[in-house]
Design brief:
Elements (H helix, E strand, L loop, with lengths): L2 H20 L4 H17 L2 H5 L12 E4 L2 E4 L16 H10 L14 H4 L4 H13 L23 H8 L13 H11 L5 H4 L22 E3 L2 E3 L10 H10 L11 H7 L6 H13 L11 H13 L5 H9 L1 H4 L17 H4 L4 H9 L1 E2 L11 E2 L8 H13 L10 H9 L3
Antiparallel strand pairs: 1-2, 3-4, 5-6
Helix pairs in contact: 2-6, 4-6, 8-12, 10-12, 14-18, 17-19, 18-19
Length: 420
């Protein structure tokens, strides 16, 4: 081939390659990545923290109450001025997994990057494609987080990360099934379940980040609400765990508190396979003490007294007047509709804040695909005094098989102050 023909061949080849590259040969792959990234964003519950009702998705602005002050979530749409539109994929990965922004500043761990550190490279890539090409940019400017000194010094997070975070990738559990390990990956990384359900240390750090430590998912406290242990969940079957995560209710319980938004924005959107994997993993974990047996005699005694409705204490009378129609004299409620009170975690918690708050403010189950009805419990803050709520809560915590300490009117008054 002479030089002229060679140059012509090269030019023709370049033109052909240019034409091929201009064709949407990767459009289908990109669309699949966007779809995968959207699903992964649901696993990570990004919507719950970075979206507000009436605002564009992922435009930020949620006020997150913490022990060091109020932290506002940021705009994570691909807007180039107010969002993350200028992030490279590596910068996106560093923000998600390390809490480090492109300018070197540090995020607070209200962004659960200590858990997100275990997200795989493939999932980070899909998330990046979704947020850059599957999310509408928004010019919304959320409020700036402005904490008091010394917490305003973000450079200090470098030392916090050194002490409490980890860059170790997810490690499958040796000898566990593929289903259990899929559940472990979701719970320990994207699901960031440990950020609420693992006890925290003096540095407000999660005391454990994976199942290799028995403190992981062993329960804790969030804004004074007792957060239950997820290790083993001996009171629930695997299907009841799936039902709860999918619909916010099962035959024993109904969602309340911070978990409501998790159900609404995250777990109700998961596939049946992933929900079963999470449930299998939680059942796989050990470490919970054996479930306290029902005290049949105590349960029957409470039921008989409420049924007779004679010589009632003030707490018993208040229960019949305000609660009995839904939770019944048995304290068992109605499966899948009204939760059990007998041996319920929120009822027997050492800190009664969750129960008090529910009595005062009520609760509403979210409307989700497999349970579209919005079942609501009314709040009684305008109907019952602090003393009446205290007596009602005390009866519930000590009736049937329950055996929790009494509630004082001062405790009720403190919770009432927090109501919006």
């Amino acid at each position: 081939m002479n030089k002229l023909k060679l140059n012509s061949f090269i030019a023709s080849s370049a033109l052909l390659l240019g034409s091929l590259s201009a064709l949407p040969v990767h459009a289908e792959d990109e669309a699949q990545l966007i779809k995968q990234g959207e699903y992964l964003s649901r696993l990570g519950d990004c919507m719950a923290c970075h979206s507000l009702p009436g605002k564009p998705d992922y435009a930020g602005g949620l006020a997150i109450t913490s022990n060091i002050g109020t932290i506002f979530s940021t705009n994570i749409t691909p807007d180039k001025q107010h969002g993350i539109g200028n992030y490279s994929e590596q910068q996106f990965a560093d923000a998600v997994r390390k809490g480090i922004l492109p300018d070197g500043s540090r995020l607070y761990p209200a962004m659960p990057y200590p858990d997100y550190a275990r997200i795989s490279d493939a999932d980070i890539h899909a998330l990046y494609v979704y947020f850059m090409k599957g999310v509408q940019p928004s010019a919304e400017q959320p409020p700036e987080t402005d904490l008091s000194f010394p917490f305003s010094q973000r450079w200090g997070m470098r030392f916090w990360n050194w002490a409490f975070a980890s860059d170790k990738p997810f490690r499958p559990i040796g000898g566990a099934s593929a289903e259990v390990n899929r559940g472990a990956y979701i719970v320990e990384s994207l699901g960031h379940c440990g950020s609420c359900h693992t006890p925290r240390g003096l540095g407000m750090n999660e005391k454990a980040l994976d199942s290799g430590d028995e403190q992981f998912l062993a329960g804790g406290s969030l804004n004074h609400w007792a957060v239950p242990s997820l290790r083993g969940l001996p009171h629930w079957s695997q299907q009841e765990i799936v039902d709860y995560l999918q619909t916010g209710r099962n035959d024993k319980a109904a969602v309340g508190g911070e978990m409501t938004s998790v159900i609404e924005h995250s777990s109700s959107h998961m596939t049946d396979a992933d929900l079963n994997a999470i449930a299998a993993y939680l059942k796989f974990l050990g470490g919970n003490p054996p479930l306290q047996a029902y005290n049949v005699q105590a349960q029957q005694a409470t039921e008989a007294k409420l049924t007779a409705a004679k010589n009632l204490s003030e707490g018993e009378r208040l229960y019949l007047d305000n609660c009995g129609a839904c939770h019944f004299v048995t304290g068992k409620g109605a499966p899948g509709v009204f939760p059990e009170l007998d041996q319920a975690t929120i009822v027997n918690a050492s800190d009664p804040t969750g129960l008090i708050h529910t009595i005062l403010a009520g609760a509403q189950q979210p409307s989700v695909a497999k349970a579209p009805s919005k079942l609501a419990m009314p709040g009684f803050a305008g109907r019952l005094s602090d003393d009446e709520v205290a007596q009602l809560a005390t009866f519930i915590r000590q009736g049937w098989s329950n055996s929790a300490p009494a509630v004082s009117k001062d405790q009720v008054a403190e919770v009432r102050k927090t109501l919006k």
